[in-house]
Amino acid sequence: MTIAADAGTVRARPVQTWLAIWAAALAIVLAMFLARSVVPWTVNYPAWAVVPVDDWISWLMNWLKVNLSWLTRSITAVFGVPLDFALDLLAKNFKIGTGADAFTLPRLSWVGIVAAAFLAGRAFGGMRLALLSGGLFLYIALFGKWTSAMLTLGLIAIAVPFCIATGLFVGIWAWKRPWVEKYLVLPALDLMQTIPTFAYLIPMLLLFGNSPVSAMIATAIFATPPMVRATMLGLARVPTEISEFGEMAGCTPRQKLWRVLLPSARPTLMVGVNQVIMLALNMVIIASMIGAGGLGYDVLLALRALKVGEAMEAGLAIVALAIALDRLSQAAARRQSEYHGELTDGQSFWVRHPNLTLAAILLIGTTLASLAISFFADVPKAITFTTAPAWRIALNWITVNFFDVIEAFRVFLILYVLNPVRAFCEGFPWLGAVFLLGLAGWQFGGARLALLVAALTAFCAMVGLWEKTMATVYLTGISVVVACLIGIPLGLAASRSDRFEKIITPFIDTLQVLPSFCFIIPVVMLFRVGDVTAMIATVAFAVVPAIRYTNHGIRQVPPALIEAAVVSGCTRRQTFWKVQLPLALPEIMLGINQTILMALAMIIICAMIGTRDLGQEVFIALSKADAGRGIVAGLAIAFIGIIADRLFNAWSARARARLG
Amino acid sequence: MNVKFLGMGAAALIAASFCTPSAYAQAPESSDPIKIALFDWTSVNLNAKIMGGVLEKLGYTVEYPTADYLSSLTTGLTNGDLTLAMEYWQTTAGEAMVASDATGQTENLGPLGPQAKEEWWYPAYMKEKCPGLPNWEALKDPKCAEAFSTPETAPNGRYLGGPVTWEGFDDERVVSLGLPFTVIHAGTDAAMFAELDSAYQRQAPIMLWIYSPHWAPAKYKGEWVEFPPYTKECYEDPAWGSNTSAAYDCGKPTGEIYKYAWKGMKDKWPIAYKVAKNYKIDTDVLNALSGQVDLDGKSPEDVAAGWIAENEATWKAWAE
Fold first, then answer.
1. Which helix (H) or strand (E) holds B123?
2. Nearest chain B Cα to A414, which residue?
3. pLDDT of res. B207
4. First to last CA, chain B
5. Average pLDDT of span B293-318
């Protein structure tokens, strides 16, 4: 309690004093651990004191279901209209009437859509983009994934504009009113991005039903936050000169926002749009569990039957869709900003929009043709092909020939690294953790941060999930360390060689968009069920931001500074260590921060291969349809992420301040 | 922009609409779609497609939403988001079915036909290393257990159990039967079969939970361990069986596979309800059909359509 008395002088404290405080704190925690037979409640949270938050949430959900389902169901019905239209148009065919009297209107022909994708590419970015986007759609068709891919595309086509519009409006609202941003929007965004999707699938099912609309809303919850953040950031970063110019030119506040500020923020907004598309495609597998179908369902089904190759193909079709949509949207945004305000009047529609006109004609033509010629209606089986056997043969070959080496590596890891760390984490006194984390918060960010961190840690213990929380921390922690050890050097290498960057970029893009489920099963075949598999799958997923941000951080160091260093006689090595690395440090820190959050997200999915942590708790809740239990476990996961994020940010802010 | 020209395309299509009458039909009581749940394994989806195909022949509109196995019992089926689901295994969904019955909003439509069997299973090549198998007493032999071990479980054998949500009681079984085995829970059955496939290729030791009807016992040669047969008392009464102070000293129960419907189905679509209630399929037939999908690579739709074409008399009788 002497610590509290000194609160005022925290920042001025010299390093030695902090060392002494930490030594004392660790001694106290060690004493707690040694005295666990006398006062066991400091180590294991007592069962009688568990706060039944899960029961409260379940009760609330039940109340909502009974009293508000008229509202949620009407929401389902309203969103269902455009969504069903999109799904029918792209994938399912329209059916009007029932039984014997039914009319069937065909969906858009696949030939037409491939051609339209090609023309859209040509319109936005020239021949290269045309070949890329047309080629990717053709690839999906030839691999026999057309109908599934169009189901997924239909969902995305409705969900993404919805997320972008919502994100934009919430972002503007938060930007206008700082208190909304601070107390409402930011905490909500943190929770939306850190609570695993699995945790809220049950409430979605109860409120919105087992339908594509639930899937769409779950997707929106997960995919909207980057748009909100991008909007707030973009608006805040518009130079004051521009905004003042808007005022001088006599804009009303509304005109200033829509005509001046938002267009100036376009590059940042486009980053948001790109992230929305990527995250929405990330969600397709989980969405297929609550009624979406499509490529995500193909992946699940193939994995259940152990068809590794088929699952990989469906996964790569998702990647193809993601790349096509991403490149097209980027190019469209670039083109629009270039052509700003350039309108040519007096010409006929088709002269102004030759590609659009041609695409429309082709779509209508091929779709009408599909009434008579089946080639246009469905991708003929004769021209599709599959690489599934090749994937399978490759995997089998590795399994048979390398298993012994892999097994030795796995056994070493589990016996000498994973198990000891796990035992240490699970035996860690909860009270000690609350105390130490609080202390860290206090050192890095003051009393407020200390209180937040301590309260969130205590929550995990008080809901009775301490052991599982620590199991999650252990696996996430190890995975993050490994991911950083691999990712940061790769990022550094990429930043120093353009060729290496070119080689590595497609790999990290694929790793990020390829559904994690696709590589979980092959990894199980090589590494058995257990923590090593979970760790490897997590590292593969979480290594991406570590590489990307490190590379970006080093590359954005101003060339003038490097020249200055070279002029003043630094060797290449000195320039790197003394100039580039320190200047890139904030960016690298951000990369590590993102790595932590990604690892946490992946660890939850790893419950599918038998980890015993909060992820398992979420899955148990999912299979028992227990809304409260799932959300409480989800919150515990979110709190781990938030604690790590806040401490890390406070620490790196201080480190930056020290570096100047 | 996209939306605009897609819209134009649709308008053109409506203008060119045409009609496809279905072959023969008995007027359905309601034209609302009957929603039959798809889960993520083959046999249930085959049953769903057969059921749906039959209903379509009778003139109903059918949709196939994808759903989650256990939670659908207390979510989708209780409010009519799902009308019908074809397989709930007594062996894994016992608790969930009790919870579903308690809501009073679902109806158990009776058994599907095949008996579910779930038990410890090993590949045939393991019999050399542990000759006493399939009798469970052989597993008590430390040498035998060691043959099934991995470095982190040694000297105990390693048994790969199902996900913790399945009601397997293997941790209890190992203790009460005094087996020198460590139970490792796989998170999903996909992970479980991935390990089996990997071990089988290398002829490596493995002991795991396998269930039937499933493609695995057809694809891999092996046997189930023979435990003392399950009785109700064994699970409830510690005094029963070889260990008089602990329950679960016997094998896993075999069980029915049940069909479930939303309560409102009976009044909304009486004939479809009758078909669903009468729907039955043989174990052998189901295994053969599943094999056509999982091993021969046919699509469930084609296999289901084939069955419907060949068994017209059977399904017509269901609707009588």
1. strand B117-123
2. B152
3. 93
4. 53
5. 88
| Tens digits of residue pLDDT in A1-59 | 344 444 444 455 567 788 888 888 888 888 887 877 777 777 778 888 888 888 898 88
Per CB-CB distance under 8 Å, the chain A contacts of B66 are: 288-293, 297
Radius of gyration, alpha carbons of chain A: 27
Residue A289 CA to chain centroid, in angstroms? 18
Q: Do A305 and B194 touch (CB under 8 A)?
A: no
Any idea what DSSP says for residue A606?
Answer: G
Please judge whether B194 and A290 are an interchain contact, meaning their C-beta atoms are less than 8 angstroms apart: no
Fold of A404-429+466-660: MetI-like fold (1.10.3720)
Does residue B102 belong to any structural domain of this protein?
yes
- Chain B partners of A419 at a C-beta cutoff of 8 Å? 152
B146 with B188, same domain: the answer is yes
Do A291 and A238 contact (CB within 8 A), yes or no?
no
Q: In whole angstroms, what is the distance from residue A104 CA to residue B223 CA?
A: 51
Domain closes at, from B179, B207, B236: B236
Task: List CB contacts (< 8 A) between A396 and chain B.
Answer: 201
B 22-81 → A contacts, CB under 8 A: 22, 25, 27-28, 31, 35, 37-38, 40-42, 45, 59-61, 65-76, 79, 81
pLDDT 10s digits, B229-269: 888 888 888 888 788 888 888 888 888 899 999 999 999 99
CB atoms within 10 A of CB A5: 8
Nearest to B28 among A99, A305, A528 (CB): A99
Task: Give the whole-angstrom CA distance, residue A58 versus residue A312.
Answer: 38
Spans of chain A, pLDDT less than 70: 1-14, 96-103, 336-347, 349, 659-660
Å between A106 CA and nearest CA of chain B: 8
pLDDT digits (tens, 9 = 90+) for A150-163: 989 998 889 999 99
Yes or no, beta carbons of B96 and A624 under 8 Å apart: yes
d(CA B186, CA B163): 5
Decide if B92 is inside a domain. yes
Comparing CB atoms, the residue among A105, A399, A415 nearest residue B14 is: A105
Report the gap between the CA of A543 and the closest CA in chain B (Å): 23
Query: Is A105–B22 a contact, with Cβ atoms under 8 angstroms apart?
Result: no
Query: What is the value of ipTM here, to two decimals?
Result: 0.73
Which two three-digit tokens encode residue A153? Answer: 């595309």
Encode pLDDT of B42-94 as tens digits: 889 999 999 999 998 888 889 888 888 888 888 889 888 899 999 998 887 88
Q: Return the amino acid letter for A317.
A: A
Domain that holds residue B188: 117-236
Each domain of chain A, given as residue ranges in start order, spans 404-429+466-660
Of A105, A400, A610, the CB nearest to B185: A610
Q: How many CB pairs under 8 A join A and B?
A: 213
Examine the domain organization and report whether B102 and B40 are in the same domain.
Answer: yes
What is the radius of gyration, based on Cα positions, of chain B?
A: 23
Q: What is the DSSP string of B63-98?
A: E--B--HHHHTTTHHHHTSSSEEEEEEHHHHHHHHH
pLDDT over 70, % of chain B: 92
Contact B198 A526 (CB under 8 A): yes
The end-to-end CA distance of chain A, in Å, is: 34
| B130 in the same domain as B105 | no
- Chain A positions in Cβ-Cβ contact with residue B1 (cut-off 8 Å): 356
Cβ contact A291–B69 (<8 Å): no
Closest Cα in chain A to B214? A305
Residue B278 contacts residue B320 (beta carbons within 8 Å): no
pLDDT of res. A473: 92
